[in-house]
Amino acid sequence: MLRQFFAYYRPWMGLFWLDFGCAVVSGLLELAFPLAVRVFIDRLLPQGDLALTVLAAVVLLAIYLVNTGLMAIVTYWGHKLGINIETEMRARAFDHLQRLSWRWYDTQRTGRLVARVTRDLEEIGEVAHHGPEDLFIAIMTFLGAFALMVAIHPGLATLTAVIVPVTVALVIVYGGRMTDTWRSIFSRLGDFNVRLEENVGGIRVVQAFANEDHERDLFSRDNANYRRAKLDAYRIMAASISINYMAMRGIQVIVMVSGAWLVLRGEMTTGGFVAFLLLAGVFVRPLEKIAAVIETYPKGIAGFRRYLDLLATEPDVTDAPAARPAPRLTGAVRYEGVGFGYDPSRPVLRDLDFEVRPGETLAFVGPSGAGKTTALALLPRFYEPTAGRITVDGIPVTDLTLDSLRRQIGIVSQDVFLFGGTLRDNIAYGRLDASEDQIREAADLARLGPMIDAMPHGLDTVVGERGVTLSGGQKQRVAIARVFLKNPPILILDEATSALDTETEREIQAALDRLAQGRTTLIIAHRLATIRHADRIAVVADGRIAELGSHAELAAKGGLYARLAAA
Ligand code: ADP
Ligand code: MG
């Protein structure tokens, strides 16, 4: 896993080495300062030359100044390295999300996904910056300080080193527990985001059912769980930080007392003593840093694991290795013995057979839950059939690239999704490079013209999140306008079941009729008007085509269709 992590550094090696180099020099200067103080006290001070002392002070100041500059560079460029890596990871995560299949999304909760792309990656970026380099510098100054302390007084240096096992023990005791706690916090945070996202998204339903109190109870449970997980983390953090602090300050006192004793016995110079005290500070500080890295590391690793899991999730539906772009299709569609089930043990479609000629309209009718929507979702390959095959213009859809196939199928589904933007953006979603005139024309064809003219900002009117400011019929027409712009040879229409008023229904019907002209149209019909318009009608029952024929034929037959039509 670490190798996968370091692979993200590769494009930024220049930045890495710049940052790293500055940090190394900064660490060395940190070590040089105590030595300079020693020379100052032991050699310069006894000479009683004030000018020389001032000069020495200037040199010390210069050392600090250089270090200040280096620290600024390390802080900025180091974080830049982190954010570069974070940005790259976020882009990859988003890119991957674009390709994952409906089957996967069916099982996901939005809030959790959002958390992965935001929070997780932020934590990883933090580790990317503070991880390897901080650890190296910490170890370097730690060992360097120890070597210099040994040079000044080996015995005292050894005494100081007793701090090390204490800190290591702390890390061992608390490190693992911290990892577990962070994993739990992440998971709670996910619950939390999911709850929030669903509540806000469904607030109109919540209020319509006056279920605010119920929602608040659910939310407080997640809120309390999150709090508990965080408190666990803080408890561990408090114990490890305070024990660490105690150990470090304790060692300082021990060094001070023993050092003073050595100075009094003449075994150590005053300058050596002061330098040793300063070095002891440089020696113990990296331990804090190492502990800090160990503290942030689990967070980043937990996030990085989830990130890798996401990237490792393969889309169910992908381009076959030999897939080729579809030519412009005439729109012949054929289902041959198609079987499918969301859950393999519960088939939704069995042995579905039908054929549609280019330009023909085939209406699907049948009881709710019969599998009509599912059957048509297989054509653009949102799901993969478990048996049989589907061809367009005689080519199996699996032989075509997903992109080129889906570009030639227009879909108006039951619940239209609009993006929170302007009407123009939402219509132009059908063809991103559409000109103003083309957008306007598509809007007119979809019978949106009068509505747009009546709106204060016309096409620039903002439709609100998911198009909440539009009526159901208006949203349908935006969806139709999108497909006019897209201009595909094949149409899939899933009629809204919700009752539209007669006027709106007629408008939408007229727009759909216009849209269907010259295109192969597969329509799931709920309205008699639509069914009459169809060339042929397929009655779907229990995952099969039960009856197929024209309205007149089926009505005369007196079967399932005749009964449905009568009802
Ligand atoms: P229809 O459009 O004819 O009303 P659907 O194709 O929507 O029927 O549904 C057929 C069956 O598949 C139903 O039993 C439904 O519960 C189930 N189903 C639909 N969508 C999914 C899904 N995404 N995951 C699991 N089961 C589903
Ligand atoms: Mg349906």
Describe the structure.
- Pfam families: ABC_membrane, ABC_tran.
- It is a multi-pass membrane protein.
- Keywords: ATP-binding, Membrane, Nucleotide-binding, Transmembrane, Transmembrane helix, Transport.
- By secondary structure, this protein is α/β, with parallel strands linked by helices.
- The protein folds into 2 domains: 2-312, ABC transporter type 1, transmembrane domain (ABC transporter transmembrane region fold), CATH 1.20.1560.10; 333-566, P-loop containing nucleotide triphosphate hydrolases (Rossmann fold), CATH 3.40.50.
- It is 64% helix and 10% strand.
- The chain contains 21 helices and 10 strands.
- It has helices at residues 2-7, 13-44, 50-99, 102-105, 110-130, 132-152, 154-160, 163-201, 203-208, 212-264, 270-312, 372-377, 402-406, 423-428, 436-445, 449-454, 472-486, 502-516, 528-533, 551-557, 560-566, and strands at 333-340, 349-356, 361-365, 387-392, 395-396, 409-412, 490-494, 520-524, 536-541, 544-549.
- A hairpin with a 2-residue loop joins strand 4 and strand 5.
- The protein is elongated and about 120 Å long.
- Bound molecules: adenosine-5'-diphosphate and magnesium ion (MG).
- Adenosine-5'-diphosphate (ADP) binds at residues 106, 342, 348, 368-374.
